[in-house]
Amino acid sequence: MNNPFESTGRVKASLNEQKYIASDEIATIVFLAQKLGKPLLTEGPAGVGKTELAKAIAGATGRELIRLQCYEGLDESKALYEWEYSKQLLYTQLLRDKLNDTLGKSESLAEAADKLAKEEDVFFSNRFLLQRPLLRAILCDQPTVLLIDEIDRADAEFEAFLLEVLSDFQVSVPELGTLTAKHRPFVVLTSNNTRELSEALKRRCLYLFIDYPTLQEELAVVRLKVPDLSPKLAQQAVEFVQKLRSTEMRKSPSISETLDWANALVALNAKSLDKQTLEDTLSVLVKHEADIQKARRQFIAPPPARGKPDEFGRFSGN
Amino acid sequence: MESRILQLIAALRASGVRVSLAESAEAFSAVDLMGIQDRNHFRLSLRTTLIKDLRDLPVFDKLFPLFFGSGEPPMMGGDPTDDMTPEEAQMLAQALREFAQSLRQRMQRLMNGEQLSRQELETLGRMVGLNQADDLRYQEWLAQRMMRALAFPEVREALRELMEQLQQMGMSRERLEQMREQIQQNMQGLEDQIKQFAGERIAENLSERPPGENVDNLMNRPFNALADDEKKILQREVKRLAAALRTRIALRQKRAKSGQLDPKSTIRTNLKYHGVPMEIKYRDRTRKPRIVVICDISTSMRFCSELMLSFLFALQGQIRKTYAFAFIDHLESISEDFNGSDADEAVASVLLRMPSGHYNTDLGWSLNDFNNEYLDTLNGQTTLIVVGDGRNNFNDPRLDIFSLMTRRAARTIWLNPEPPVMWHGDSDMPKYAPLCNNVLKVGNLKELVSAVDQLLSA
User: Which residue has better confidence, B388 or A189?
Assistant: First the structure.
């Protein structure tokens, strides 16, 4: 099979084809993770493209992406597998006659029980096994990319369970025996760092911290994803976002918000970043009321007493 | 190369980064894979395998260049007299002659852009005590001292004089400017070289430092024998342990939950299916404890109580309800202080409110306070924890109230830093002890951890 991930340069190029602009750092670490067969733990602020990275890897390698979204209270039955109890029950009801036929001829209770035991496998077979993402990734015939999203939102106990799965990619279903992965999936875990992950989990992963991009990187992303935005306006927009990020905010705008904003600018057919456009679209970029007020005060309409008229002059393009 | 990487790992560990054996093995296979030709790839392969925490990244970024330096700092080599006219060279030689022998040599070396030899650096290092330093914070300071030992300030002053003199002697302006620039750059190069050397040496010392002062040792050290900075290390360790404990307790509670079939509630929920058991209910066997903790925060007990409190509040999710009280001579409820998210801040605010002074510990009176105001916090599901040494300064121990409290609570546990052999003098422990279900000696962090673990396992 033609492996698109045979060198860091190829990694970078093929991620680029998926419209994901990878820095050298990201490309190198993705390459290492795939070579060493280790899960990749990515951390960073929300919206810098952690999930996007997993999608791009899946796209570049042509593998299926299996996603497990974590949340508080997520447990094994939601993540691994579940017996379809009601389906089993339905089948026993519908097959009652058939069962009677099978069991009816037996002489003693013991014989009937033995016969039933022989048929037991029917009810605990793959037919009634409801595969959840983890088991799907393990049983899949093709190599896959397994994305475990926002692992920090799951409980500590789920993390402990995940460790077992990640260490040797096999699970035991008591009724079926041990199921081992045919192909090791490429595992990407993302975390927003809302809580400390356990040492054991970190030890098993390669670590990649994705920070807010630099001006050039972000501009490249915007140009790539929103090609309709004029280069000049894109430059101005990204400069504005970078400036917002450097101020103290409750939630700094991330790349995904920059892209939303760029799309909004295209939709509004904006020619330049004048005061009115900024006023109208600011809420796409900044999500907290307090932050909006602050941004408005600082960048759009500075208080007249101290404000310099050229402060927003540069945005109006004059 | 291998030993260099091992040294880096040792230095990382000495700076407080946790690097496991598996991770260092991983680092080697990553380096094998990526090769060492590309410095950036090399750095990334080490970083992604060794560093798993955002907070540790700066440590790595600081240490890495010290072990795998970017080579020698650039110097402008060559003799400045090379492209001078004979008259100009004459002028320079004459001006130089005005200075003392030692200064003259230094200046000439600077002009020629000669670097310090390894040996010279070693000598300088010995002069300023570089070999004893094992903290990177001293890098800048030691480098300054080395430069002073090289008579840097004097040389700088002398060079300025030299320039003035040359100007007076009529050297052209451009030539002077050129020389000044060259010397400036060489000085910078030398400074970088010295800084790099100081950093390297400190990092090496760091990696050779015996691992004696690590956390494991501190965990076994009695509370009252801890220095201030050691307490800080332990505070950090408490957080880590609390996280580990939380995982363990969570697992325990989780396993207990999926235990037994609950026939009663199964029948009830399946009434709507004509009694066909479509939904199975299991008995929830988790019993999250309710905890009432009374802490002695007088000077002798303060640190133990502090750790205990940070522990309990780090375990919030695993405990149903906590009421915390602190006393020295009277009792105060401190639960409100812990409603915020940061346990450290909470502990600090409590300690600020109830400073340890010269007044005497009085547990009896504090129990009386509890009896008057907070007795309703105790019920059949509550575990009562007392953290204290039971030294009552010969006040009335109020055993009547204490026995009432123990009878109301499901369980009473006393954590005492003193072993039973020391329960004499003004200690009322012999009287309190029989009333408790359990008296645990908690003299150091390790014992505290196992006590908390035990507390939540039952």
Answer: A189
DSSP label at residue A300: I
Same domain, B205 and B237: no
Percent of chain B having pLDDT more than 90? 1
Q: What is the pLDDT of residue A306?
A: 45
Based on the domain organization, do A146 and A263 belong to the same domain? no
Tell me if chain A has a CB within 8 Å of the CB of B25.
no
CA distance A205 to chain B (A): 8
pLDDT in tens, A95-137: 888 878 877 777 888 888 888 787 777 778 888 888 888 888 8
Q: What is the rounded distance in angstroms from the CA atom of residue B195 to the CA atom of residue B181?
A: 21
Cα–Cα distance, B231 to B216 (Å, whole number):
13
Residue B423: which residues within 8 A CB-CB, separation 6 or more? B390, B429, B430, B433
Q: How far apart are CA B292 and CA B420, in angstroms?
A: 24
| Tens digit of each residue's pLDDT (9 = 90 or more) over A252-287 | 888 888 999 999 888 888 888 888 888 888 888 888
Q: What is the pLDDT of residues B121-167, one digit of tens each?
A: 888 777 777 777 777 777 788 888 888 777 777 777 888 888 888 88
Of the candidates B209, B237, B265, which is a domain's last residue?
Answer: B209
Rg (CA), chain B: 34
Tens of pLDDT, residue by residue over B232-272, are 777 767 776 676 666 666 666 666 555 678 888 888 888 88
Number of domains comprising chain A: 3
Looking at the structure, do residues A71 and A93 belong to the same domain, yes or no? no
The reply to whether A157 and A112 lie within a common domain is no
Tell me the one-letter amino acid at B348: A
Does some domain include residue B359? yes
- Residue A53 belongs to a domain: yes
DSSP secondary-structure letter at A205? S
B418-457 burial code (b ≥16 CB/10 A, e <16): beeeebeeebbbeebeebbebbbebbbbebbbebbeebbe
Q: Do B247 and A159 touch (CB under 8 A)?
A: yes
- Answer whether residue B222 is part of any domain: no
Query: What single letter denotes the amino acid at residue B48?
Result: T
> How many whole angstroms from its chain centre is CA B312?
20
Chain A: residue whose CA lies nearest to B244: A198
pLDDT digits (tens, 9 = 90+) for A225-241: 888 888 888 888 898 88
* Domain boundaries, position B141: 86-209
In this structure, the answer to whether residues A74 and A90 fall within a common structural domain is no
Whether residue A103 is found in the same domain as residue A249: no
| Residues in A lying within 8 Å of B, measured between beta carbons | 8, 24-25, 28-29, 32-33, 35-36, 38, 41, 43, 85-86, 89, 155-157, 159-160, 193, 196, 198-199, 202-203, 205-209
Residues B375 and B301 occupy one common structural domain: yes
Question: A2 lies in a domain?
Answer: no
The question of ipTM being above 0.85 is answered as: no
Distance in Å, alpha carbon of B40 to nearest chain A alpha carbon: 9
Burial string for B52-63 (b: 16+ CB within 10 Å, else e) reads: bbeebeebbeeb
Range(s) of the domain holding residue A250:
215-301+308-313
Same-domain status, A261 and A180: no
Residue B81 lies in a domain: no
Whether B219 is covered by a domain: the verdict is no
Distance between alpha carbon A149 and the CA centroid of its chain, in Å?
4
Map residue B306 onto helix, strand or coil: helix
Beta-strand runs (E) in B171-298: 290-296
Distances (CA, A) of B194 to A238, B174, B436: 41, 30, 64
Q: No. of H helices and E strands in chain B?
A: 19, 6
Looking at the fold, whether A190 and A49 belong to one and the same domain comes out as: yes
Q: Is the pLDDT of residue A41 over 90?
A: yes
CA dihedral sign, ordered B220, B222, B225, B231: positive
